[in-house]
Design a protein that fits this description.
Helices cover 26% and strands 25% of the residues. By secondary structure, the chain is α+β, with helices and mostly antiparallel strands. It has two domains: 143 residues, OmpA-like domain (60s Ribosomal Protein L30, Chain: A); 146 residues, 2-Layer Sandwich (60s Ribosomal Protein L30, Chain: A). Strand 8, helix 6 and strand 9 form a beta-alpha-beta unit. The N and C termini lie far apart (77 Å). InterPro entries: Bact_OuterMem_StrucFunc, OMP_bac, OmpA-like, OmpA-like_sf.
């Protein structure tokens, strides 16, 4: 067997939350060629196209292509043949590689088939398996993508502006249903729903205000920064590997309030990912938790 060409696609998908990513997966797929051919048969072309279509629920980080050929022919000829086979496959994968950043080619030779003790049928079968291109994928599985939420369900500009107008503080009196209380000084460990000690002052203030207003019912709303909403609806919670960090942080505040005497029936929690970025603010300020007043008895 001769492995004579490696082609690597590096995608230009750069996410500033990448340090929070914990579950990158890999996959391998092979397509096969007839003897001395670099074009796929109709059957193999269909197999490859079906495979490409099946990738719709993952986000590709990189695609590596390795071209192979059997032991017949000169090294130089087979090097060119394996390169042409890899090029055939790369052309079909261009729809995936539309964000291609770099292409790198490598080659090495591995002459083994002639050393094996095979009968004619076994030799033909082995040579057929060696006339191939292997595809190596590195990707995020759809655990990281909320595909149930279509892009057109994201808030409109008008909805964002209306929400911005409802942002208040506890000092804004009187507060009414629909007002959203900004909690400025809550801090979490990166990629986790674990509160830092410097959040204590804000937590104590929140407890005091909620105790002083026992007729308020409210929703705790979590938000995150630094994700590409074209591909992701939330950041990854490093403790679970699930893409719901904004919800996990809202739930952490819910648990804190409940543990400190705020009745559970007064409150709910929800994560919004980066659906509601703050206008005119630095991106890191979108990493926040807010309190939305849902009713006043």
């Amino acid at each position: 067997m001769k492995k004579l060409f490696t082609l690597l696609f590096l995608f230009g998908l750069t996410f500033c939350y990448s340090q929070e990513l914990t579950q990158v997966k890999t996959d391998k797929y092979s397509v096969y060629f007839e003897f001395d051919k670099h074009k796929l048969t109709d059957e193999e072309d269909k197999r490859l196209n079906d495979y490409v279509k099946s990738l719709g629920d993952i986000v590709i980080l990189s695609i590596g292509l390795e071209g192979f050929c059997d032991d017949r022919g000169s090294i130089e000829y087979n090097r060119g043949l394996s390169q042409r086979r890899a090029k055939t496959v790369s052309d079909i994968l261009q729809e995936i590689a539309s964000k291609q950043k770099n292409v790198e080619g490598k080659g090495k030779i591995d002459l083994r088939i002639t050393e094996l003790q095979l009968n004619d049928d076994e030799l033909d079968a082995t040579r057929q398996l060696n006339r191939r291109v292997d595809i190596y994928l590195e990707y995020f599985h759809n655990d990281f993508i909320d595909l149930s939420k279509p892009k057109d369900s994201l808030p409109t500009k008008l909805q964002l502006e209306n929400r911005q107008l409802r942002l208040k503080t506890f000092e804004d009196k009187p507060l009414k249903v629909g007002d959203i209380i900004k909690l400025k000084d809550l801090y979490f460990e990166g990629g986790r729903a674990v509160l830092l000690r410097k959040s204590e002052k804000q937590l104590e203030k929140l407890l005091t205000e909620l105790r002083n207003n026992p007729n308020f019912k409210f929703q705790i709303q979590g938000h995150v920064c630094c994700i590409d909403t074209e591909y992701f609806r939330d950041a990854v919670d490093e403790d679970t590997g699930i893409s719901n960090l904004s919800e996990s942080r809202a739930k952490a505040i819910f648990a804190y309030l409940k543990a400190n005497g705020i009745p559970e029936e007064r409150m709910t929690y929800k994560g919004f990912g980066r659906d509601y970025p703050l206008e005119g603010e630095k991106e890191r300020n979108n990493k926040r938790v807010e309190i939305s007043i849902t009713s006043i008895d």
